[in-house]
Amino acid sequence: MYPRAPALSRRAFVALLFCTLVSAGCREDCLLVASCCTSCDDATATERCGECSAEETPAYLCPKRSACALAHYIGEGPALCCEGSCGSIIGYEAGEAICRGEDVYLHECAVESDCFQIHRALAFGTLYLPFHEESSGSGMPLSALWGAEDQVWAVGAQGRVLRREAGLWRAEDAGCSEHLTAVWASSDDVWVVGYSGTVLHYTGARWGKVEVPTSALLTGIWGRSATEIWIVGEAGTILRFDGMSWQAEESSVSATITAIHGTDAQVVAVGPEGLVLRRVDGRWQRDREVGSEALLTSVFVDEVQGRVWACGLAGTLLERTPEGRWIQRELPLNAALTAVWHDGEQLWVVGYGGTILRGVNDAPLEVVSYFTAAGAADLLTIYGGPRALFVAGARGAVLRYDWE
């Protein structure tokens, strides 16, 4: 778990951010204010309208720890610091305007550094976590992730299938051009579903298209094992694989079922208008105690305690307790949420606008901030593997957060 540092002054951070990026300031009577010293050893930085004189040195040209630079970036303080290096995620304010020992000043660090980002998060009340961008090689949206052993699979628009192995993503030729919506895998047994009743199967050697008793849009897939798998989709479609063939199951609903997940003890599917279906004694039953009318986009069932989480549009996050009671979880923002995952201790939710939320045990969820060179993309899917958490979405974006 990354340690928390004391909350920082938002004003101090914003002021330093402006100085770091612009190396100057603004005032009402002057469009651009330059910070000037007689030399880099001069601890007095004087503001000039426009440019420094020929006899003066601009502060931003001086070494970052010179007297002139410190006067420009920090002034009378406080100094914003990080422990040890720009790669540190432990930040603090130094009231005397001097960082401790070998610690670094924030203005010494690049915007993409952990130090800069942790100060940004602390200033604006978010939780910074070092997510790493990965190159998927795809500019198309990625709609679903799943992993098995040391491999992670991603699927998306126009038949895109990607496999991550040994830290690298590469495209698979699955022989399909339909949009793909969901993936589930057990070892080298991989199933993918998508538009127009598309079901693809990989057996460890090659991909093949599987005939199923529907041409409906298929939106979700999950399995207990390679011989017990469910698919859901539009018009209340539910299909079950018994290891030999796919058979339709009666859902008693006509709406599009958007997602499915389960454990050995229970299987749950969700959809629009707060639709929750639970498979009880081999039959699907509607849970009418949900208390929500939202379009639910994702569901996750905890294997240990049997809790269920479902997220959806309009900032909806629902939780079903082990006692069977549904509660609405409070969120720190209102965003369209697309996927939910629980790793046994931490609850993760992602959504549009690059939204990532995290809650530890039953603590309130926090907004996670992170840095991406390409800017925030709509996030559509999440998967937690044994070594890392993966998030993917629009523009082929893939983010990885390594477990500590």
Overall average residue pLDDT = 91
CATH homologous superfamily annotation of the largest domain: YVTN repeat-like/Quinoprotein amine dehydrogenase
Number of domains: 2
- Terminal residue distance: 7 Å
What's the tally of helices?
3
Description:
By secondary structure, the chain is mainly beta. It has two domains: 10-125, no CATH class; 132-402, 7 Propeller (Methylamine Dehydrogenase, Chain H), CATH 2.130.10. The protein has helices at residues 10-22, 67-73, 114-124, and strands spanning 24-27, 30-37, 46-49, 57-58, 79-82, 91-94, 104-105, 127-128, 132-134, 142-148, 151-156, 161-165, 168-172, 180-186, 189-194, 199-202, 207-209, 218-225, 228-233, 238-241, 246-248, 259-262, 267-270, 276-280, 283-286, 296-301, 308-312, 316-320, 326-328, 337-342, 346-351, 356-360, 366-369, 379-384, 388-393, 398-402. The protein has a five-stranded mixed β-sheet. A hairpin with a 3-residue loop joins strand 27 and strand 28. It is elongated. The termini are close together.
Short description:
With 404 residues, the chain is mainly beta. It is 8% helix and 42% strand. It has helices at residues 10-22, 67-73, 114-124, and strands at 24-27, 30-37, 46-49, 57-58, 79-82, 91-94, 104-105, 127-128, 132-134, 142-148, 151-156, 161-165, 168-172, 180-186, 189-194, 199-202, 207-209, 218-225, 228-233, 238-241, 246-248, 259-262, 267-270, 276-280, 283-286, 296-301, 308-312, 316-320, 326-328, 337-342, 346-351, 356-360, 366-369, 379-384, 388-393, 398-402.
